[in-house]
Every structure is written in structure tokens, then in C-alpha cells.
Amino acid sequence: MSPKSGADDSQTLPTVSLLSGGVAGGVEAAATYPFEFAKTRVQLRNETGAQAPRNPFLVVGQVFRQEGVGALYKGCSSLIVGSIAKDGVRFLSFDMIKNAFKDPETGTLTPLRNMLAGMSAGVVASVFAVTPTERVKTALIDDARNAKRFHSAPHAVRVIYQEDGFMGLYRGFAGTTLKQASATAFRMGTYNILKDFEKSRNITQSTATNFGNGAIAGIVTTYTTQPFDTIKTRSQSAKGASTVDAFNSVLKDDGIKGFWRGMTMRLGRTVFSGGILFTVYEQVSSVLNPMFR
What is the C-alpha separation between 10 and 96, in angstroms, rounded? Predict the structure, then answer.
């Protein structure tokens, strides 16, 4: 029998979902940012013509030696703010959409509906939080390699707005939304399917179990959504590019394998981030739920 979901998650209040998701997203972003930095650097196009390392670990070493440890956190504040908003919105919308997708007779949710709920939540998060903050984060990382026009995240927002208008902050929206829809479907869906499977076999939901489930969900997410992430990164470089131009540039530079560039670092990040995200979310929810009832 397919594992089903629904009853337990409805006990989480919307306010708790929003706050717990926001806290979890901020902690996860801060803890794993160097992985994200290296992955983004590897995915960006080299405009100077100078030879640049493609191994993410070599990127980290080179940046550390030449620019100092602070450079590894370039764009971090933008990602933290974005992650707080993204994961707050994502967990809130996921829980609300799950309730709408429940079987009206049994009140349960099949694995397929779990995935559809995650996909819908990813689209909502992309529109309201992810695309503009990812645009700023990626532009800051790209700019730090070359022109160094941006002094800070707020300054980058002002420059992008002055040069390209409000829609400049939504550069790469298609790629970001595709990535968020698929990533949230696989991450949230996989986590909830594993959680329901364990509950049906009376496996205790401990911190270790939450972390393990989140890590597995991160692995599944990375392998299935890496091409969308690469296209998104190219679209949101400092100069910006359309989704079609980004796709063509990856294909021209590296062929099909180029769509999986940076996967090693992203895999390292998503394994830890998935574990951290869901563990913190479950812990914060367990504290807040009694307070809001």
C-alpha cells in the first residue's frame, strides 16, 4: 500500500509553518553558504578569458588565498534574507496546499499529491521570494570576480533597478521557477513520503531521523534538478541573460555535461542543508505549536 500523508501535518498552524520555515531557512543558508558560493562561481561564465578552475574545491581554495575568507560569504546576506522568506513561504504554502489536495473522504495525501503540493509551493516561493533574492545573490558573486560595481546587496538592488527596472530583479524567473517547482516537489515530497513510511512502521521521529530524511531528500533533489539550477545561475549573472540565452551558452561552452556543472558542491550543500532545514523546522515547530494554540 502506498504511504499516505495528511492527518498529522494539519496540526501545524499556518503561523507556526511560516515562522518555523523562516528560522530553518535562515539557519540552513548561513551554515552552508560556502558550498553555494563555490557552486555558483563554477556555473558562471568566464568573461575575462583567463583560465579559471572548474573544481569547486579549488575555487574555494583560490578565493580564500586571493580574497580572504570574507569573500566566501559574498552575497550571503541576500541568500539568508531570501531563505527566510523562501522557506517561510514554502512551508506555509506547502502545508496549506496539502490540505487542499487531501482526499475528501479519507483526509490523506498520496505520494503523487505530495509531489504536486511541493511543486505548487515552489512556484509560490519563486514568485514572492526566491527569484529577486537569487538574482541579487548571483549578481554579487559574479560582480566580485570582475567589475566589482556592487558595494552591498542593497546597492546591487538599486543598480539593477536603475539599469533594468523592476523586472531586472526577476531576470531568470523562468529558470528559477522551474528549479523551485521541481526542487520543492522532490524535496518536500521525498521528505514527507519517508516520514509517512517511517510512521507506518512505528519508527521514532528523532533529530537523527529528521536529519537523515532531509539529507536523502537533498540528494534526490540535486540529481533531478541540477540543469535548472545551472540555467538559473547563468540567467542571473551580473550582466543578466534570458533563459534561452543561458541555455544556449551552457550548451556552447560545455555541451550536455555542462548542465550538471557545480553538482558536486551543490550535492554537498543539499545533503547538509536538507538535514539542517527539516531538523530545525521540526524542532522549532515543536516549540511554537503549543504557544500558538
Answer: 8
Distance CA 132, CA 29 (A): 16
| pLDDT means over runs of 10, the chain (293 residues) | 46 89 93 81 65 68 82 81 89 86 70 87 90 86 79 89 91 85 90 86 91 94 88 77 85 88 79 92 93 84
What Cα–Cα distance (Å) separates residue 105 from each residue in 32, 108, 114, 205, 254?
42, 8, 17, 27, 51
- Where does residue 206 rank: exposed (0-12), middle (13-18), buried (19+ CB within 10 A)? exposed
Segment holding 14, helix H or strand E: helix 14-43
Torsion region of 255: left, alpha or beta (phi above 0 gives left; psi -120 to 50 gives alpha): left
Backbone angles phi, psi at 50, to 5 degrees: -75, 150
Q: Which of 231, 225, 227, 258 is nearest to 246 (CA)?
A: 231
DSSP bridge pairs for 109? 5
DSSP state at residue 108: -
The C-alpha cell at 55 is 573544481
Question: How far is residue 130's CA from residue 125's CA, in Å, rounded to a whole number?
Answer: 6
Look-up: residue for cell 521570494?
A: 129
Q: Contact 137/82 with Cβ under 8 angstroms?
A: yes
Give the Cα separation of 228 and 236 in Å (integer): 12
Widest Cα–Cα separation across the chain: 63
What is the CA angle 73-247-229, rounded to 5? 35
